[in-house]
């Protein structure tokens, strides 16, 4: 699912009901449910840029640009959304250390830790720099590690080949010098014989 069609907090797809995309004045959009959870002390603090907006969730505008662009299957309430991840490989999913049943969705640059949507407020309240991580990060990390291993193999084979080349070059030089010496000796002998 494209991230433009899902809430940046709960990572569930937008729809026309309780998950409709709501725009904050700063320009970031989240689902209505998550906006309601962010509403405290008559303000809504954006988890991305930390700007406090003095508005109620009901008074914020719907992001119709996203809502009208929703793919056909997403316009209804997604009751099977929790089951869509069943097809994903288990090793590519990372879970929160504090909430083991929740998937990791954010990274804190200050703490250098990954955490779930339940933990985001703790980090944003401490004014930490939090970024949303892609669900494909683990797959990409694994692919990069495999590529690095492949490069390391090639580096090792290059160094082995370079070592072999150097040994071979030394042998060739030695043999060449021996042959040149033999030729010079033969030439001197011939010259010596001619002078007699």
Description:
This protein is α+β, with helices and mostly antiparallel strands and 196 residues long. The protein has 3 domains: 1-77, Herpes Virus-1 (2-Layer Sandwich); 88-134, 2-Layer Sandwich (Double Stranded RNA Binding Domain), CATH 3.30.160; 136-196. The chain has 4 helices and 8 strands, in the order E-E-H-E-E-E-H-E-E-H-E-H. Strands 3-4-5 form a 3-stranded antiparallel β-sheet. A 3-stranded antiparallel β-sheet has the order 7-6-8. The chain has a two-stranded antiparallel sheet with strand order 1-2. Strand 1 and strand 2 form a beta hairpin. The longest helix is centred in the C-terminal third of the chain and has 59 residues, at 137-195. The protein is rod-shaped. The protein starts with 20 loop residues before the first strand and ends with a helix. The model is unreliable at 75-91 (pLDDT under 50).
Question: What would a concise description of this structure say?
Answer:
This protein has 196 residues and is an alpha+beta fold. It has helices spanning 32-38, 64-68, 120-125, 137-195, and strands at 21-23, 29-31, 39-40, 43-45, 52-53, 106-108, 113-115, 130-132.
Q: Quote the distance from N terminus to C terminus.
A: 97 Å
What is the level 1 CATH name of the largest domain? Alpha Beta
Q: Roughly how many Å is the radius of gyration?
A: 33 Å
In what range is the share of β-strand residues? 5-15%
Mean pLDDT: 80
Helix/strand order, N-terminal first: EEHEEEHEEHEH
Unreliable stretches covering 5 or more consecutive residues: 75-91
Number of strands: 8
Quaternary structure type: single chain
Under CATH, the homologous superfamily of the largest domain reads Zinc/RING finger domain, C3HC4 (zinc finger)
* Integer count of domains: 3
Please tell me what the overall shape is: rod-shaped
Q: Give the CATH topology of the largest domain.
A: Herpes Virus-1
Helix vs. strand class: alpha+beta
Provide the helix percentage. 25-40%
**Lateral strand order in the biggest sheet:** 3-4-5
CATH architecture of the largest domain: 2-Layer Sandwich
Helix count equals 4
